[in-house]
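Q: Could you fold this chain for me?
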Amino acid sequence: MKRLVGNYCKIVTKEPGDSRASVVTGILENVDYEDGFILVDSNQGLGCLRIDTIIAIKPGNPHKRKHQTNFKEDEEAAIGIGTLIVFIAMILVAAVAATVIIQTSENLQQRAYAVGKQTIRQVSSGLEIIDLTGYTDESKSVIQYLAISLKPRAGSYDLDLNQTLVYIEYDNLTVLALAYEHFCDDGALYNNQQNGSISCEVSSNGVFHTLNHSVLTSTNYGAISIRDSDNSLINSFGMSPSDLIMVMINLSAAFPETGGLEPGEEFFGRVVPEVGSSGIFMVSAPNAFSRKVIDL
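A: Sure. Below is the predicted structure, expressed as structure tokens.
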């Protein structure tokens, strides 16, 4: 049969159960003994026949093709159904695998974007300590109040003062949170109440007399807005990169045993925002207080 490949042939076939044989004419394109098929290019197109159904095959005259008898009109196409089923199954499996891969890649992309965004914010954001100033009592024996001037670092995202904590390490660890009712802007004391009432107490004696420090306890701190061009601090306690605030701490409440920071004493502290790097400071009191306001 291999010798007839490429030649015009007349092929007589008979399917099991048929009462008569059929004749197919065309060019024998290929013979597949392994799968038991031959490939024939007839006037009906390219098709395949099972070898076990072939009764006879012989070369023919291509000019007589139109006079040859073809497949019966009522014969069902049973050849190649298995191959078609396997092909469709492969397409379905490939489609399912592609869907899983696409969904996985999308989830990974979204996760990587979120992690990258959070990492950039964590690395670039933070607080910077500018200045530390202390205020003593009337006898200049202890530092009662501490003012910390700070601002967001260069390139920092907006920071929420509500979520900013102050850590003080002196004998014991003390954690201070913002006292919402003790937030000032330009010397004005705002009461954050539900009725929206605002009370203002302006002092000409400086920042240490603006807030009512006796109300500040060992668990909270006050804040004064020094620079707030977009009113973000006043409206939502949010610090934009151009803002500057002063955190006020009542050391007499934080150190109740001594009533404040004594001469020659020191303590370590951190201003920790919600996200980003902390502002770290070290307060070291001089051995003697020559005046009430002391640059630390």
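A (continued): The radius of gyration is 45 Å.
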